[in-house]
From TrEMBL, chain A:
Keywords: Membrane, Transmembrane, Transmembrane helix. The keyword rRNA processing does not apply. This is DUF3341 domain-containing protein. It comes from the Bacteria. The chain crosses the membrane at residues 57-78, 98-121.
UniProtKB/TrEMBL annotation, chain B:
The lineage of its organism: Bacteria, Pseudomonadati, Bacteroidota, Cytophagia, Cytophagales. It is found in: Cell membrane. It comes from Fibrella forsythiae. It is a multi-pass membrane protein. The chain crosses the membrane at residues 37-60, 80-101, 113-139, 159-181, 220-240, 260-280, 301-322, 342-359, 371-395, 415-436. This is Polysulfide reductase NrfD. Its main location: membrane. InterPro entries: NrfD-like (IPR005614). Keywords: Cell membrane, Membrane, Transmembrane, Transmembrane helix. Belongs to the NrfD family. It holds the Pfam family NrfD. It comes from the Bacteria.
């Protein structure tokens, strides 16, 4: 997330997720570009309404899983077949059905750790990251729609009217 | 769309608003510790200190301080290990499997249940380290290049699978739980008054600001995590059961072990969730979030899994006779009528008969009955593992080496250690972290709340029900 420096934002505060959902549509239809909407809980369909592209996290997860599977397969086949062949319980040194449990576990482990790391990095999260809060109440019970004034041609007063008409309870100015 | 069938009772009662959810859950985190918490924490910490001393004595002296003998080489250590791992399974079932099945009632209980999972797996792991006797050599279980030639671990052994399964299970559960906590930690961060808590909760909330894009990715990630955790949780107890099933001991060498162990794990896990939740909802005044509806749903799962376990017990007995194998038959006759008959019948009564009482609606919606029966189920599940392990071992192929197992003070104290550890960790969690997933409860509150005041919600519930296309337009 690029940190906006010296940007002026108009922040519409909404009380309800259904209202903010409707407002996103109305505000976009009236030609205003929305920077982002901040909500206290996931609102389904909001990313689609805002026109965000579909997340590609699934692809990352699949690739990490594949890495895990290949790691397990190569580790076990190398050690059991080439490095130190060993017959245990009358089974051939290379008996692949018996590799299934560990191959599965490592697939899951790599998928989970890889995907979560990708999520954290791609969203610019981290223990030392200072959150970009448009309104502190958005982690409690309010929904904030941030509009970057640099990106919009309309006047501030016009945008404020549009926000209020679409259901905003308050409209504040936030400067970063 | 926020539409709920009229016959469903609300999941969150008394018309709680979004702000109420934050307030009710954060109150525990922000306020001073209550008297009940302080007393409970002191007791747990004292038990933990005593237990730790006993565990170190066990390591110092060696496993001879336990009641093991050359016939019964596994007893309370492995019993406790399997028991704790099993308890952990309910948390993942609630957070992953019920998420995939879109069971909204899980939102009020998943946080605490997942915490229980993590702490239970930690307790289980401590028994593995105790059982090793020489825990400083634990790294021998890992496939590391070593100084003994290029000899590797035996990948064909279920004990090595267990190392991978348990450590993966612990890591993935921890990550799943922590990612679920991040938005709620941000809530606490933004409400925090003191500098220290703003800094600490700020660092752990990773700079979360709840943007729509982050939430969309977050939901997607949770779904994939749930998708991979579901087979993971089933695989863990399957592999634990293979520790027994791949051996040639009569009573252990059984192909029904994997489903039977998984059902038993969920059974005991839900009983433990009930015990913890029934206390939490009263002490933290969360009766509106963890309602009788939740308790009843969990009791239904307990009845289902308890019945599966019952069928498994009877199947085992039948197959022991039907197989015509003399040793197999004897192992089971010995379980029911041998010197450990009391353990077998304690298991049968607690696990097969007692959960059937939940067919009565009065009993399964009663808090007292639920609590008592959940304790009984957990006792029964401990006996199940004891019966499987000790009674299968104590009379082996050679009658001259038949023996009994007598627990010593250190068997008991090392078991107490795990309770001290579990409750100390759980109480710390209950004090410093939100015990209910606020973000998820807020997301279901409208569809499940009886009456949400119009002033708060903006649109009254009545309007939403009469005009269900409201949200559809936005898509």
């Amino acid at each position: 997330m690029a940190s906006p420096v010296n940007s002026r934002f108009l922040v519409g505060i909404f009380d309800d997720d259904d209202v903010v959902m409707k407002a996103v549509r109305e505000v976009r239809e009236s030609g205003v570009r929305i920077h982002e909407v901040y909500t206290p809980f996931p609102v389904h369909g909001l990313d689609v309404a805002l026109g965000h592209p579909r997340s590609r996290l699934g692809i990352a997860a699949f690739l990490f899983g594949l890495t895990g599977l290949l790691t397990a397969a190569s580790l076990m086949s190398y050690t059991e077949k080439f490095d130190w062949p060993m017959i245990v319980g009358g089974k051939d040194s290379f008996s692949y059905p018996i590799y299934v449990p560990i191959a599965f576990e490592l697939t899951v482990l790599f998928t989970a750790l890889g995907m979560v790391s990708t999520f954290i990095i791609s969203n610019g999260l981290g223990p030392t990251v200072k959150p970009l809060m448009f309104d502190l109440r958005t982690t409690d019970n309010k929904f904030a729609m941030a509009i970057d004034m640099e990106n919009n041609k309309l006047q501030e007063s016009e945008i404020e009217t549009i926000l209020r008409k679409s259901g905003a309870a308050e409209v504040n100015v936030k400067q970063f | 769309m926020h539409i709920t069938s009229a016959v469903r009772t609300p999941l969150v009662s008394n018309g709680k608003t979004y702000a109420d959810v934050t307030e009710d859950v954060c109150k525990q985190v922000e306020g001073r510790p209550t008297r009940e918490w302080t007393i409970a924490f002191t007791i747990s910490a004292l038990v933990l200190v005593y237990g730790t001393a006993c565990v170190f004595y066990t390591w110092w002296e060696g496993l001879g301080v336990w009641g093991l003998n050359k016939t019964v080489g596994w007893a309370w250590d492995i019993t406790n290990f399997v028991w704790w791992v099993g308890i952990g399974h309910a948390g993942t079932l609630i957070s992953a499997i019920l998420l995939l099945f879109r069971q909204k009632w899980r939102t009020s209980i998943n946080r605490a249940a997942e915490a229980m999972t993590i702490f239970a797996v930690i307790c289980a792991a401590t028994f593995i380290f105790m059982h090793m006797g020489r825990p400083w050599l634990a790294y021998w279980a890992l496939p590391l290049p070593n100084t003994f030639g290029s000899l590797w671990v035996n990948f064909k052994s279920p004990l090595v699978w267990d190392v991978f399964a348990i450590s993966t299970y612990f890591t993935v559960s921890l990550v799943f739980w922590y990612m679920g906590l991040v938005p709620d930690l941000a809530t606490i961060r933004d409400r925090a008054r003191s500098k220290v808590s703003r800094y600490v909760y700020g660092a752990f909330s990773l700079g979360w600001n709840g943007s729509a894009k982050t939430w969309a990715r977050y939901e997607y990630m949770s779904l994939i995590l749930a998708g991979i955790s579901t087979p993971l949780v089933l695989s863990v107890h399957t592999i634990v059961s293979m520790d027994f099933a791949t051996s040639v001991i009569p009573g252990w060498h059984t192909t029904i072990f994997p489903p039977y162990f998984v059902a038993g794990a969920i059974f005991s896990g839900f009983a433990m969730v009930q015990n913890l939740m029934l206390i939490i909802r009263v002490v933290f005044k969360l009766e509106d979030y963890i309602t009788v509806e939740h308790i009843e749903s969990m009791n239904k799962i307990i009845t289902l899994t308890g019945s599966i376990v019952g069928v498994a017990y009877i199947t085992e007995f039948f197959i022991a006779w039907y197989s015509g194998v003399e040793f197999e038959s004897y192992a089971f006759i010995n379980r029911g009528t041998g010197p450990y008959w009391w353990a077998y019948w304690a298991m049968m009564t607690c696990n097969v008969i007692s959960p059937q009482l939940f067919w009565s609606k009065t009993i399964r919606t009663s808090v007292v009955w639920t609590f008592v029966l959940s304790v009984i189920v957990n006792i029964g599940m401990w006996f199940e593992r004891f019966v499987i392990i000790v009674t299968s071992l104590h009379r082996d192929y050679l009658p001259s080496s038949w023996a009994m197992f007598h627990p010593t003070l250190f068997d008991i104290s090392d078991y107490l250690f795990s309770f001290g550890l579990f409750f100390t960790l759980f109480l710390l969690f209950a004090k410093f972290l939100p015990v209910v997933n606020m973000a998820e409860v807020k997301a279901i509150i409208k569809s499940s709340s009886a009456q949400l005041p119009k002033s708060v919600s903006g649109v009254a519930k009545g309007e939403r029900v009469t005009a269900p296309t409201f949200n559809k337009n936005a898509d």
